[in-house]
């Protein structure tokens, strides 16, 4: 099953967004001249998601989607507004919700992720939002324009940005977080406390170590607020559940691929069958992929990072064309977030660290630099307002990734 496949003539990409489009462009750039089909369940032409929790929410006039630049050289067939519901590896076919089947001899899985639903108390049918796509952002933007108070549940990167957008629009914002500080599990307590300070300075009512126990509604069923585990109540006419994302693998549940926590794949991003062997004609890229991470000793992880989706798309497309001769994926993860006028940037995998070293922390200039280590080795770095410091960390992490690949 691991032999190099014959060069495919007919490639289907499921997921027509960032990773899907970049995979398509790489296939053409690498000389693929066969038939290329992009399937996506959204109707819009591909757009970029990061602005949806930032400038899109604060823009003065109704903003259009930020279109993803797509190469003119694609010569692709676009099937938009079509949902894939099943994959048949033996017949090499994707089935759609209307029963139609599409055959392939090379497949790219790039279906991204969906907003994680709440495991908490039942939410009223109006006034409570999640944010993943353009439609969600349009609905939320409307609620922010109409509303006076906003409750954001979850102070991760997405929740933090949405809270900041609500505040920038002049709403009273409450940000509720179960941890002791925003992002603490990902960036450590000191950096988390610094981010908490940024929120509080902006006038956000940050409640840590707490969760929502009940949503409150008015007589007509509209959201009016919530009760928290500490017994207090907050007022809100809109709420956003920002609880993270789940890889979009539902359509693959009977496919014979390993899909828990994302589509598992090998270092060349070939999807893994249930018995752990790579499927040579199926590759995976972006938020849906659970790939071995060199900086975490090869532990498979799914990352919700824009650059990861782009980098993996390139490797996945090359693997489809070159099989086992293609290079392994060893790009260093990187991430950014814009918060209250400062840019947070990270490289590597701060979340897997056992030790955090804070090299600079200055609340007055809002600057911070921290490095992250695991068993004594550098695994990541994070800056706030100090982006230029990351290049040196990036070089060290790239060398560590390559060393891991040489060692296995
Ligand atoms: C609001 C928001 C803000 C973000 N901000 C940042 C940021 O500041 N920095 C950063 O690094 N990253 C950010 N990200 C993450 C970044 O946008 C993602 O990592 C990136 O979009 C992943 O691209 P993807 O192509 O893998 O998945 P997606 O962009 O999720 O695309 C997957 C596509 O597949 C479609 N699809 C799913 N299932 C099916 C199916 N069964 N059939 C057909 N089509 C299907 C989806 O509808 C979607 O169009 C943000 C994400 C969001 C949602």
Tell me what you see in this structure:
23% of the residues lie in helices and 31% in strands. With 408 residues, it is an alpha/beta fold. Helix 1 packs parallel to helix 7. The strands form seven sheets. The protein has a six-stranded mixed sheet, covered by helices on one side. A five-stranded parallel sheet has the order 9-16-10-11-12. The chain has a five-stranded antiparallel sheet with strand order 23-24-27-26-25, with helices on both faces. The radius of gyration is 22 Å and the shape is globular. The protein contains eight helices and 27 strands. The longest helix has 18 residues. Bound molecules: flavin-adenine dinucleotide. The site of flavin-adenine dinucleotide has 34 residues, from helix 1, strand 2, helix 7 and strand 23.
Tell me briefly what this model is.
The chain has 408 residues and is of the alpha/beta class. It has helices spanning 18-29, 55-58, 134-146, 157-168, 184-187, 189-201, 306-322, 390-407; strands at 10-14, 35-40, 77-80, 84-88, 93-96, 101-103, 106-109, 113-115, 128-129, 149-153, 172-176, 205-207, 212-217, 223-228, 233-235, 238-241, 245-247, 263-264, 270-272, 278-284, 289-293, 299-301, 334-339, 342-348, 355-362, 367-374, 377-384.
